[in-house]
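Hi all, posting the design record for the shared folder.

TITLE: backbone redesign
STEP: 1 of 1
STRUCTURE INPUT:
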C-alpha cells in the first residue's frame, strides 16, 4: 500500500482529539492491556532516556515516564503533537519524521514504537534510524498489529475488521474515513516472522516476539549489539548498495 507521509500525517491530525477514545472502543478495551505489556517489555529504569516514536498524544509516553525514566515523544503529525502537549505537559514532544530522527548516534537506552511502524513510508529505514540512536546494548520494543495464529480467530478478526470496525469508527471518530486506511494497513502488514526478519536485517540481535490477544497484536523485541564486530557487520548491511553504470 502506497503511503504518502503528508496525507497520513494530515489524517492523524484530523483524528487527534478523539484518537484515544476511539482506540479504546475499537480494541474492545484491550488497548490498555497492550500498553501495560509494552511498558513491561521496555522495562524502563529511573534515569534512562527513552524514545517513543509515533507517540501520538503521548498516552504510552506518560505510562513509560511513571518509571522515572526521561521520555522523548516523537510524532510526524502536528495535530497529534499539539494534543499530546496539551494532555501531557511534562513530556517533551518533538515533531519529526521517523525516517530522519533529529538525534545523534547512541543517545537512548531504549526506543519503542506502538502501532506506528506500519504507517511509515519505509519501515526498514525507520528501524535503521532507531538502531542508530540506540546506545550499544540498547533495547527496541515494537508493538504492532499482526495476524492471529488460530484459523478460527483469524476468520473472526477479519470479519470484525470488515464489518464491525467501520461501524464503531463511524459512531465514535471525528474522521471515520481514516479508519478505512487502518483496516487496509493491518491487512497488508507482514506477519510476525516477517517483521522479526526485518528487525534482524537492520542489525538487531536477540530478536523475539510475543503474541498478544492471540496474535491480533505482536510485541517484538531486539537489542543493539555491544560487540563491535557484530555492529560493524550490521552497519554494512544497512549501508546503501553502490551501483555501477
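Okay, here is what came back for every position:
SEQUENCE:
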Amino acid at each position: 500500500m502506497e503511503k504518502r507521509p503528508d496525507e497520513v500525517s494530515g489524517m492523524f491530525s484530523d483524528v487527534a482529539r478523539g484518537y484515544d477514545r476511539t482506540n479504546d472502543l475499537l480494541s474492545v478495551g484491550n488497548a490498555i492491556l497492550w500498553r501495560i505489556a509494552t511498558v513491561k517489555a521496555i522495562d524502563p529504569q529511573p534515569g534512562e532516556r527513552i524514545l517513543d516514536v509515533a507517540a501520538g498524544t503521548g498516552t504510552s509516553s506518560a505510562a513509560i515516564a511513571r518509571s522515572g525514566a526521561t521520555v522523548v515523544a516523537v510524532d510526524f503529525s502536528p495535530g497529534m503533537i499539539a494534543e499530546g502537549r496539551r494532555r501531557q505537559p511534562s513530556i517533551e514532544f518533538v515533531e519529526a519524521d521517523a525516517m530522519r530522527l533529529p538525534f545523534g548516534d547512541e543517545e537512548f537506552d531504549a526506543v519503542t514504537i506502538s502501532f506506528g511502524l506500519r504507517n511509515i513510508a519505509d519501515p526498514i529505514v525507520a528501524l535503521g534510524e532507531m538502531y542508530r540512536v540506540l546506545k550499544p546494548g540498547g533495547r527496541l520494543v515494537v508493538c504492532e498489529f499482526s495476524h492471529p495464529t488460530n484459523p478460527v480467530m483469524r476468520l473472526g478478526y477479519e470479519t470484525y475488521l470488515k464489518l464491525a470496525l467501520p461501524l464503531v469508527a463511524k459512531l465514535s471518530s471525528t474522521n471515520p474515513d481514516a479508519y478505512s486506511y487502518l483496516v487496509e494497513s493491518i491487512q497488508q502488514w507482514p506477519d510476525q516472522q516477517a517483521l522479526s526478519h526485518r528487525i534482524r536485517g537492520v542489525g538487531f540481535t536477540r530478536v523475539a516476539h510475543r503474541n498478544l490477544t492471540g496474535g491480533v497484536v505482536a510485541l517484538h523485541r531486539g537489542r543493539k549489539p555491544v560487540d563491535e564486530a557484530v555492529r560493524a557487520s550490521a552497519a554494512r548491511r544497512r549501508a546503501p548498495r553502490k551501483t555501477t553504470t
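COMMENT: The chain has a mean pLDDT of 87.
Let me know if anyone wants the other runs.
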